[in-house]
Specification:
The chain is an alpha/beta fold. The protein has one domain: Spore Coat Polysaccharide Biosynthesis Protein SpsA, Chain A, CATH 3.90.550.10. It has 7 helices and 7 strands. A 7-stranded mixed beta sheet has the order 3-2-1-4-6-5-7, with helices on both faces. Strand 1, helix 2 and strand 2 form a beta-alpha-beta unit.
Length: 202
């Protein structure tokens, strides 16, 4: 196998923090689950494992991102799908380890495990939900080779990262998380209360 085939693109980290958190009622990225706003906690976490770490945000949030590098969304109507495309457009030769800011149980072990099982020959490496087998696109590594496929799917009317991973089929590498709670995300006040209780008991 040639060096070109075995080499892996550099890995950048991306915290998805551009959502409007309508169901929760306030910005998920500013919740202090673990001593600092979650968008910054996750950026620090990714910086320990990646060659660079960025916070994805809406254009109106850029001035609020302090002491961290931000990538403004240039696909404003596509949600997290657009945030991923925006990052890939900025740095097309990089791979992106994406983490959503509403996942309070993501830790060093979760990131390290995903990176160790990365298959750069696939379009993406993602955790999957052990209960239903569905891929979790918001805790995943997306390779540069996925960009054109994602653009084509978007033009065809698909703008859901999970559906994209499903469409990838065998071209996506799905990884079992060490702990099921790793891929839990927070959408409602009840979710937030349950997560706070679980974190406090650790």
């Amino acid at each position: 196998m040639s060096a070109r085939q075995t080499s892996k693109p550099s890995l950048y980290g991306l915290v998805l923090a551009g959502g409007k958190s309508r169901r929760l009622g306030h910005d998920k990225g500013l919740i202090e689950w673990l001593g600092k706003p979650q968008r910054y906690y996750l950026a620090d976490l990714l910086a320990r494992h990646c060659d660079g770490a960025y916070i994805s945000c809406r254009p109106d949030q850029v001035g609020q991102i302090e002491q961290y590098e931000a990538i403004s969304d240039i696909y404003p109507d596509l949600g997290s799908y657009g945030a991923l495309l925006s990052a890939m457009s900025h740095y097309p030769d990089k791979s992106w380890l994406v983490v959503a800011c509403d996942m309070p149980f993501v830790d060093d072990d979760a990131i390290d495990n995903l990176i160790k099982q990365r298959d750069a020959q696939k379009l993406a490496t993602a955790y999957f939900n052990p209960e239903n087998g569905l891929p979790e696109p918001m805790l995943a590594i997306w390779e540069p080779t996925a960009f054109d496929r994602l653009v084509r799917l978007s033009k065809a009317g698909l703008d859901c990262p999970r559906k994209a991973l499903i469409k990838f089929g065998d071209e996506a590498n799905l990884v079992r998380p060490h702990r099921a709670e790793t891929i839990i995300n927070i959408n409602t006040p009840a979710d937030k209360a349950a997560a706070e209780e679980a974190l406090a008991s650790k």
